[in-house]
Amino acid sequence: MLNDCSSLLAHLSTRRSGKPRDMVAPGPSEQQLHSMIEQAMRSPDHGKLAPWRFIEIAADQRTAFANMLKKAWIASNPGAAKLDLSALEQFAAQAPALIVLLSTPVLPSKIPLWEQSLSSGAVAMNLLHAAHAHGFVGSWITGWAAFDPMVTASLGGTENDQIAGFFFFGTPSLPLEERPRPQALDKLTRWAPPTSD
User: Fold this and answer.
1) Quick one: which of 25, 45, 47, 9 has its CA closest to 129?
2) Residue 186 parent element (H or E)
3) Rounded Cα–Cα distance for residues 187 and 99 (Å)
4) Within 10 A of 35 (CB to CB), how many other CB atoms are there?
5) What pTM does this model have?
6) Among 157, 127, 122, residue whose Cα is nearest residue 140
7) Alpha-carbon distance 43 to 40, whole Å?
8) DSSP of 23-55, one letter per residue?
9) Under CATH, what is the fold of the domain 37-76+95-174?
């Protein structure tokens, strides 16, 4: 059914990100992940370019993913090999499901790069909405790894691609806490036409 908003307002009013370290099983099944991605792609996309790509980091690849993150961190931070890098292992291992979203702009294109980047952001937000609709909690994380060329390349990204974020999904092990949010009237103004001379 098109434009079914029977529960959409409640959905929008209750969606909340969770901390990946607090996510436990069950996470989305492979079929649910595919459904979430299909729903995420129902996003504005000027020119129908689909300037984004999803990479699943499967459960049995988390250790290899952590090792890649360590190599990238050491390459960018001389002397880091002597440091405790267990935080990177924890990052890679947390939550039952992990999807990386790449922003993959089509260049050259008559569609401005900014619009393609906005489309990736819309897909990212819809991915979180899809997780919520499936009964899971999600989290959109960036951090240093999202801006590291070695990490991007390891995910198949080119020099024009950018990691839009790491998306963790699972079931919350703790109650989700609401955070302070702006009031609509604090962020809304009404445009006034310029006065003529």
Assistant:
1) 9
2) helix 184-187
3) 32
4) 15
5) 0.93
6) 127
7) 7
8) EES----HHHHHHHHHHHT-S--TTS---EEEE
9) NADH Oxidase (3.40.109)
Do the strands 162-172 and 97-103 form a parallel or antiparallel pair, or are they unpaired?
A: antiparallel
Cis peptide before 193 (omega within 30 of 0): no
Q: Read off the tokens for 122.
A: 């819309």
Query: Domain boundaries in the chain?
Result: 37-76+95-174
Give the dihedral sign, CA 122/46/53/29.
Answer: positive
Q: Which residues of the chain fall short of a pLDDT of 50? A: 1-3, 5
* DSSP line for 56-112: E--GGGHHHHHHHHHHHHHHHSTTGGGS--HHHHHHHH-SSEEEEEEE---SS-SS-
Which residue, chain included where needed, has tokens 């440091």?
Answer: 83
pLDDT for 82: 80
C-alpha dist (Å) from residue 184 to 93, 106, 187, 188: 37, 35, 5, 6
The encoded tokens of residue 117 equal: 């980047």
The radius of gyration of the chain's CA atoms, rounded to the nearest angstrom, is: 19
Q: Which tens digits make up the pLDDT trace of 13-60? A: 888 999 999 999 999 999 999 999 999 999 999 999 999 999 999 999
Q: Is 179 exposed, middle or buried, given 0-12, 13-18 or 19+ CB atoms closer than 10 A?
A: exposed
